[in-house]
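Recap from last week: sequence in, structure out.
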Amino acid sequence: MLKEALRYFLVVALGLGLDVGLAWVLSHVFGLPLLLCAALGFLAGVAVNYLLFEMWVFATRRLSWVRLGKAYLAAQGALLARLVSVWLLAMLLPDMPQRQLAVLVIAAGLSFTVNFVLVRLMLRPR
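Predicted structure tokens:
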């Protein structure tokens, strides 16, 4: 499972890079609205993550629209976990230097964990 978790985090990092990179290019090069760019980047990142989950992380090699939908559902669960974590941590952490950065980093870690569990449950072969 450690090898699988390491592969997962590499894929997520790549997906995040694609997500943010594509959004930035669409916004700065093509002048599209930032909200649209963020949505397109997110969708592209999840799609690439799904392909890599199936082909490399879990090595199921079973591509399907249903499983892609499950990957998007897991991503939504992770997003919800991140937003709730940010909201709670912003209220609970004491006022300190770099408090906002600490909130974001902790929330990202929690949401990555939630996403890993959800993806593993939804995409793992039975």
